[in-house]
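queue> holo job accepted (zinc ion)
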Amino acid sequence: MISRRSILTALASAAFALSGLSAPASAQEPKVQAVASFSILGDLVRQVGGDRVEMTTLVGPNGDAHVFSPTPADATKVSNAKIVFVNGLGFEGWTNRLVKSSGSKAFIVTASSGVKALKNEEGHGHGHSHAGHNHGDLDPHAWQDVANAKIYVANIRDGLIKADPAGKKTYEANARSYLAKLEALDVEVKAAVGAIPKNRRKVITTHDAFGYFAKAYGMEFLAPQGVSTDAEASAADVAKIVKQIKAERIPAVFLENVSNSQLIEQIARESGAKIGGRLYSDALSDQSGPAGTYIDMIRNNVQALQGALSS
Ligand SMILES: [Zn+2]
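queue> job finished
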């Protein structure tokens, strides 16, 4: 005799088959515990992982991963994780030690794997280096090029499938629909930046976080700090930027959500350039802010650039 329960199960399966969706994790099935090193990556993992994944980020909204110091609570998060996502490219050098010290057996996914990495100074014509600190040769901010975010998403999808094979269909479907959104976003950014007059596509930010954006979309970003935020810009770095702003009539300087605003305010004062707004470089805003997701972050940045540079 067919039980009531099996009829319901069969009906439910049929409904999922008809809708083309795979069945969600049932209530009793525990979610996959995932950790991402910083908020931008955390959002990408959430988009692909959906309901099957419980996400924890180490460096939260508006946080600076360059200079982060993990706490024992972070070690606990990592030791409980089944899968850990990091950016790589020298961005969060503290993760290796953290994973090791936590005793975690988590599967580690380097989201930037396969990205064509820019050298420290490539792509934004910024030729200085600070004495006494060395971040390696690579610019870690690959996520600022939407085409690279698509590579991140593919790596996240493949990592989740390895950690949780039962969710394969869900991860593939989520990744597919999100990749389509990123594709549309990339087109949107190209059009928006393309509409800014060429001679005005040059701005100042606190640190060199926009090399990939610059290269992908045809802009120039200059910064008194290098690709990390862990050393202060010297007086000579600041003087050089001020001189350059005046000589090249650079229209605007931008605050960053992860950096102290004093440096940019000083540069604006000394150069006469206006403050064009705030760019989200290495972290999302709070959920209630204008850059609570990766897509909103990119849109917000592009709108800020357009607003300051268009006329
Ligand atoms: Zn940075």
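queue> Residues 66, 141, 207, 209, 229, 281-282 surround zinc ion (CB under 6 Å).
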